[in-house]
Amino acid sequence: MQLLTATGPSLDSREILNKFRKDNPATKFLRFQWQDYSGVLRGRVVPMDTVLAQISKGGPLKATGLALCVSLTNNLIPSTPLDGQFWMLPDWSTLHPTATPGSAQVMCALDFTVPATGPVSREVCPRHVLNKVLQQAHEDWGLKFLVGFEVEFVVMKANPSTGKTERCSQGWGLFSIAGLRDPCYQYVEQCVSQLEALGVDIQAIHTEGQRGQYELALGPRPPLEAVDQLVLVHSYLKDTFARHGYVVTMVPKPVASESLANGQHTHLSLQPTRPDLEESFLAGILKRLPSLCSLCLPQDVSYERLLPFVAGGNTACWGTETRFAPIRKIESCRWEIRNIDAMANMYSTLAAIIGAGLCGLAGREPLLWPDLGDPANKDAPRGEPLPKNLEEAIALLDGDAFGLAVVLGRPIIDRYVEMKRFELSKLEVMDPESARELFIELF
């Protein structure tokens, strides 16, 4: 399906919108959405009549010059170009009703021009960069991919007397049916029913490791489609529960004093299965895993989740069906990457992970890390320590000792590094619990 480009609409844009409006006559507003470097979902809401009028005129759709220049603390990075402009390129295959009556949403890529009438650049948009990496994988190696996500979340509620957000779902965890008797759970099934009606592949629901924690397992999709589906699932959960006075959060550590932790385990498989490429692809990821943490674990709170030999571990290692390792091999050419959480921008994160694998293929890198799932390797070293905080991870990404920028492009790495360092400087002066409340609100 063609996209609306920065130079004008595709021929079928108007047809798609008119059909959508006919099928959804109550829809009055359309959210043009993108995910920024901090993983924050941003967008512009435009009345449907205005959208159709703009497309009829043939002009491009403006986002804002600040689309990728704002930290999650709502501050502009110092290098924000005041004469720049981002343009929205909607992918109409992502057009869906939202959980909010009368509203719809569509995910967008972003073109960038400086000045506003200058040449178009796509080098700083996470969605464009992921698409570029996927094209390179297909052209150079004949590879495609499937990606599936595990969505872990907790239901919370604002306490008016304290001004704090507190955990309110208390059902027993670890697959227990007792946990499904919590009053909050009815809204989980409500969300799943609505999402399935939109074509979302939800393979299972269960209570997770701690009281009041739930997980949805999403079926495998091609990478761009998988991330679009993930964004839709997050939005439906948050919007549905919000209408009933609750807050759904995927923050890795929503309550500082509790062991409760949310991850976003990511399943990645090579298509077609290529055992001849498997080891070098995995080696490329493991070699660059410490710097990949800057994208997979994008806030200091993310590192509170990493413990030795628990929930993904804190060293660069892998193992067949080994859950204490950050990479668990499930079967030939299929892995679960466990050191990821929902604060990540998954477009750029998947671009970096797949890009690291392509670096391994290009260099024919050997798999030097032992399979820790093999009993013969029970005493083998657990690998290089992963960063202990975001600054350590950012420094590794910035230094790029192993050539990740060759695949991703230096512009998006430089912009991301600048944003995260600036963001850290703003968060450092915040009260830690106020920062955690902000994370809960956004994620």
From TrEMBL:
Residues 126-443 form the GS catalytic domain. Pfam families: Gln-synt_C (PF00120). GO terms for biological process: glutamine biosynthetic process. InterPro entries: Gln_synt_N_sf, Gln_synth/guanido_kin_cat_dom, Gln_synth_cat_dom. Transmembrane segments: none annotated. SUPFAM superfamilies: Glutamine synthetase/guanido kinase (SSF55931). It comes from the Eukaryota. Keywords: Ligase. GO terms for molecular function: glutamine synthetase activity. Belongs to the glutamine synthetase family. This is Glutamine synthetase.
